[in-house]
Structure to design on (281 residues):
């Protein structure tokens, strides 16, 4: 279905380009059926040169004939964008938002539009290895849900949830998740360099260890604790290292960090832009 549809992407930033490139490179959409809209003509021209899509600086013009509209702007720009496209959407068009924190009800109200898909992707969508959690308003039809799956599958894996509250949870786990993984990688690489490895080798050792461990976990289908036990011989090196990680509160730190991200996601959804409450720390 998506092949025949006209798609508009509002917001030519990191997420907007990721979605644009996956749509075009997967050949699910013909470039002439895709329009990207953003305020900077130079940035739009750059994307047209790369992906041969239609470009405009006028959001209203971008959505006028679109069947699928992707909103990929920062939360603080949403109201401005809503004003620019409200009343210009086709009644049966689907608006898919990747904007963190803004709820279905707020999206529908600001756009005066019924068919809304709310998603939470993560940055590996840039190489079609992301994971996107999504939900919809009630009026979105089964056919439109299938088109949503077709679109999101070009970005990696997708998980549909029928309860919107999972979106804030997904923000804390998979949306923010790459930040935790990159920090962990950084710490391991720095430790390997500290031991004496050249940085290039340290980076190779760490990235392949993480990649291989994840693929091994997925193929074996065992619980991570079982796989960890297999590399933890009594009195050995893993046991020694794990003792120090647990002693330093590794598990609690991860758990607390994810809870903090979840709470922050809820705050942002309520329009609380700055974190004034330091009592939680
Ligand atoms: N990056 C992530 O890891 C991630 C993950 C999940 C969800 N998200 C969500 O994705 C959304 C976009 O994030 P991002 O990282 O892609 O941000 P970004 O790189 O800043 O992209 C936002 C784009 O929107 C453009 N823009 C600003 N005002 C506009 C308007 N009135 N009409 C059309 N375009 C406008 C910006 O142009 P200018 O730069 O010229 O202002 C920019 O190109 C956010 O809501 C975020 O919550 C991001």
């Amino acid at each position: 279905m998506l092949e025949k549809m006209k798609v508009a992407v509002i917001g030519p930033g990191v997420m907007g380009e990721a979605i644009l490139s996956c749509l075009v490179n997967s050949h699910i959409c013909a470039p002439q059926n895709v329009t990207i809209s953003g305020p900077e003509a130079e940035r739009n021209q750059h994307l047209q040169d790369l992906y041969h899509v239609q470009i405009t600086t006028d959001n209203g013009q971008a959505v006028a004939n679109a069947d699928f509209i992707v909103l990929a702007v920062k939360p603080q720009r949403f109201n401005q964008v809503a004003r620019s496209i409200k009343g210009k959407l086709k009644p049966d068009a689907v608006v898919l938002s990747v904007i963190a924190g803004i709820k279905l009800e707020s999206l529908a109200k600001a756009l005066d539009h019924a068919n809304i898909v709310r998603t939470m992707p993560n940055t590996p969508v840039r190489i079609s290895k992301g994971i996107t959690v999504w939900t919809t308003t009630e009026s979105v039809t089964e056919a439109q849900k299938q088109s949503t799956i077709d679109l999101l599958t070009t970005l990696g894996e997708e998980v549909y949830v029928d309860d919107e509250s999972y979106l804030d949870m997904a923000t804390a786990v998979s949306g923010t998740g790459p930040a935790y993984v990159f920090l962990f990688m950084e710490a391991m690489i720095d430790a390997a360099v500290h031991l004496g490895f050249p940085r290039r080798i340290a980076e190779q050792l760490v990235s392949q260890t993480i990649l291989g461990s994840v693929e091994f976990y997925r193929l074996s289908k065992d619980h991570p604790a079982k796989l960890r036990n297999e590399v933890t011989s009594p009195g050995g090196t893993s046991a020694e290292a794990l003792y120090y990680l647990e002693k330093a509160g590794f598990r609690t730190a991860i758990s607390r960090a994810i809870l903090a991200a979840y709470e922050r996601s809820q705050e942002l959804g309520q329009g609380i832009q700055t974190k004034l409450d330091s009592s939680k720390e």
Notes: Residues 10-16, 37-40, 59, 72-75, 77, 80-81, 98-100, 120-123, 175 surround NAP (CB under 6 Å). The longest strand covers residues 130-136.
